[in-house]
Amino acid sequence: MQGTELQQEAERQITICNACRYCEGICAVFPALQMQRSFAAGDINYLANLCHNCGACYHDCQFSPPHEFAVNLPKTLAEVRNDSYAQYAWPQALAPLFARNGLKIAVLTALSVTAFFIGLIVLNAPGELFRAHLAPEGFYALMPHNTMAALFGAVFLFSLVAMGMGLRAFWADANAVNTVASSSPSIWQAIRDAGSLRYLDGGGAGCFNEDDQPRDNRRLYHHLTFYGFLLCFAATSVGTIYHYGFGRIAPYPWWDLPQMLGTVGGIGLAIGTGGLLAARRKRLPDLVDQRATGMDVAFILMLFLTAVTGLALHILGGTAAMGVLLAIHLGVVFSLFLTMPYGKFVHGFYRFAALCRHAMSRRHGLNPAPPDRPVPAAARISGG
Amino acid sequence: MSRMNGQAVPATAVDTSCDVLVAGGGNAALCAAITARRKGASVIVVEGATKFYRGGNTRHTRNLRCAHDEGNEILTGPYSEEEFWDDLMRVTGGQTDEELARFTIAESKELWDWMTDTGVRFQQPLGGTLNLGRTNAFFLGGGRAMLNALYAEAERIGVDIRYESPVTELEIDNGFFTSATVGGPAGPYRIDARALVTATGGFEANIEWLKEYWGDKADNFLIRGTENNRGSILRLLLDKGVEPVGDPTQCHAVAIDARSPKFDGGIVTRLDCVVFGIVMNNACKRFYDEGEDIWPKRYAIWGRLVADQPDQIAYIVFDHKAMGMFMPSVYPAIEAPSLRELAGKLDLDPEAFERTVTDYNAAVREGTFNSQELDDCHTEGLSPPKSHWARRIDTAPYYAYPVRPGITFTYLGTRVNREAKILMQGGRPSANIYAAGEIMAGNVLGKGYLAGIGMTIGAVFGRVAGKEAARHAGN
Ligand SMILES: Cc1cc2nc3c(=O)[nH]c(=O)nc-3n(C[C@H](O)[C@H](O)[C@H](O)COP(=O)(O)OP(=O)(O)OC[C@H]3O[C@@H](n4cnc5c(N)ncnc54)[C@H](O)[C@@H]3O)c2cc1C
Ligand code: SF4
Ligand code: SF4
Description:
- The complex is a heterodimer.
- By secondary structure, chain A is mostly helical.
- Helix content of chain A is 62%, strand content 1%.
- Chain A folds into two domains: 3-86 and 365-382, no CATH class; 94-360, no CATH class.
- Chain A has 14 helices and two strands, in the order H-H-H-H-H-H-H-H-E-H-H-H-H-H-H-E.
- Chain A has a two-stranded antiparallel ribbon with strand order 1-2.
- The two termini of chain A are 31 Å apart.
- Mean pLDDT of chain A is 83; it is low at 369-375 and 379-383.
- By secondary structure, chain B is of the alpha+beta class.
- Chain B has two domains: 2-247 and 411-474, FAD/NAD(P)-binding domain (3-Layer(bba) Sandwich); 253-406, Flavocytochrome C3, Chain A, domain 1.
- Chain B has twelve helices and 21 strands.
- In chain B, the strands form five sheets. In chain B, strands 1, 2, 6, 7, 8, 9, 20 and 21 form an eight-stranded mixed sheet that branches. In chain B, strands 10, 12, 13, 14, 15 and 18 form a six-stranded mixed sheet that branches. Chain B has a three-stranded antiparallel sheet with strand order 3-5-4.
- In chain B, a hairpin with a 5-residue loop joins strand 20 and strand 21.
- In chain B, helix 1 packs parallel to helix 12 (453-474).
- The longest helix of chain B has 22 residues, at 453-474.
- The chains are: A mainly alpha, B alpha+beta.
- Flavin-adenine dinucleotide (FAD) binds at residues 23-29, 46-49, 54-58, 60-64, 166-167, 199-201, 224-226, 228-229, 232-233, 266-267, 408-409, 437-438, 452-455, 458 of chain B.
- One iron/sulfur cluster binds next to helix 4 and helix 5 of chain A.
């Protein structure tokens, strides 16, 4: 196989799994790898993005270190996965920058954008920064809505384009050698698998985190994060529609849709990301990518800060703290958007694409006729 | 001494005592320990291996055979006691203790529930082993996952588990056990117990012992499982007047990749491609009919066949047509664009190598190749013949796997009764020594092998031993 040293190491381990197959009932990675005999670089990245680091196969593996076969899929696939984010990032020139100093860059961006907004407020409404502003004109007294919309619309669009390009590259690479024998994507199956984190349960026992017992709550925290994020996103979208569609200007009363969605989502997001950050610190070091680029922490941290500052704005919106809070919140959100295509956020897209591909290949098989023909009776193994 | 779970082995340990001492740490040992503890006995498990290597050969297993009247969400259909019995008779050729065998089969019906209640999870087999989906329950995540569940339960209910604690001596007086000496980093120290369960496997990793029957050939054997199953307890017991069972000279041996580690290569080193090629020794001579019968019926003779070749090595040779027809294995096949180059890579005489292949090719009578049944592709006028699936080896690239004998387990063990009690020479049961698992499997499996029955025997007799030992200790 061509590919990086890391991808070759992953291929070595995957070959052992393909001979062993004891984990085939645990998650999608194993049935997926069992469909192939040889693995191109894109296949390895695809498999890496199917894995969500539940840790089960590490504890179940008779060949994990210190065995000389040294199989540790959670760790190796995490490393490949993190590399794949950089590999498919667009524009490529930005990828290494973020890969190296993810956390610092995210925080610096947040800080400088915050400073920028504070400057904007001071310029726009001299002397207003520390004055209590009451609804309805509160927010936009400090910062014109159109400025905000233009800025955030631009950075959001950029992110979308960048992530779309990344996704395209990932998909092309995953299908570069082994293609699925049909082009109709099994999106619905993938949505169900992704939405329920179907495979993130160690095959039914649960995820592993700090030790060899499956008593991890990362699945719960991930759900809270994911759905919290969606709710917050929905809140912003509804607000934008209100604003431009119906001329209803923020802030909205507590019972209105944007407020309700935002509050519930914000709380979910705060607890979810907080839980994930805490679980991360306790995590068995054997299972994680130790090369810590900071981009995954940065992403969770930015989400956490988005949620917390957003909630703070809800609560303290009418006080003198609002000006500074608003600037911080916007700074964090801006940084979140800007760094999205270069950090952990993309895992959602690649993982979803990987699930799609897995669902498609399960239904239609691979092209050309899968090399793994059904094992003939003459050669059937004894089965232990 | 306080409870420890092998997280840290203390520098020294003090003499101690308990109701039931369990030696070993695999399926049989844990089934005994959990059962005895649930019956209220205080239990210490002494496992010779480190925590990672705990449960010797059980770590390498993937399924358990159990009789059941109806299929369920995983087992695809019923498997009656009678059918199980017929299967056992077929593989052992009747070399079994009928009473114990029928008892094992009857008790195997309870294993599914017992295992699931204890936290073990099962799955349906996907590929390659589909044919066992009805008779065998596959552990989700394999044997180590199953062991993890048993250990978690044992710890939860208060079994004292000690790793790196091999038993080095047993005090047995006229069939009555009083105490064991434990070695390892914390030893030596003594554990007195009212009853002893021995579940320390066979002696397949003891090359010196194997040499008693195989001579120097045994130096070239690879051991598929743990290096800790050295039969030390078995030896102690036999030396103290316990009645043996099973042919000491026999072992279950298959041909595995010669590049495998000496120990613990496990399942991934197996090669299922003999039927698709030819097999020659290092003099480039074929020595057995590669297509005599379907592989599940023949795979277990190839270990012995290779053991009888010079230097205990052989080469499976095939061509491009066969690639991908069998389960992949851990090491890549050795590949070359021509037969001569392949011989060179294998360090074999290119001329002799090529001649053997050419002679074989000339003898091939190709019919309709069908890997699903005994087809009509065979050789004529070749000795030894290849009776089925004979196709010319003529399409580059050419491939080879070097193979050596891989030992799975040995048959010699201790004779037991239905209470899992060890019998002394002359047939009298020991007062308080029990045996379970590989160490006594020869009672049921005198010869051959039936997929999944190692786990069955271990779990059935482990549970019986635990129950009886706890009862004895309580009296
Ligand atoms: C590659 C492979 C695959 C297999 N697959 C299957 C399968 O799918 N299904 C099946 O039914 N069978 C299978 N078998 C057979 C199966 O492994 C054995 O039948 C089974 O593990 C025996 O269980 P046990 O508890 O008796 O011994 P083991 O699981 O081997 O445990 C024995 C333990 O005793 C310990 N020990 C040894 N000496 C001492 C001492 N002096 N003091 C303290 N501890 C000691 C060892 O460290 C070891 O942990 C397989 C075997 C191999 C090698
Ligand atoms: S992780 Fe280990 S046990 Fe699981 S399939 Fe791979 S080699 Fe086998
Ligand atoms: S860590 Fe979990 S998700 Fe990843 S390969 Fe192993 S079992 Fe599958």
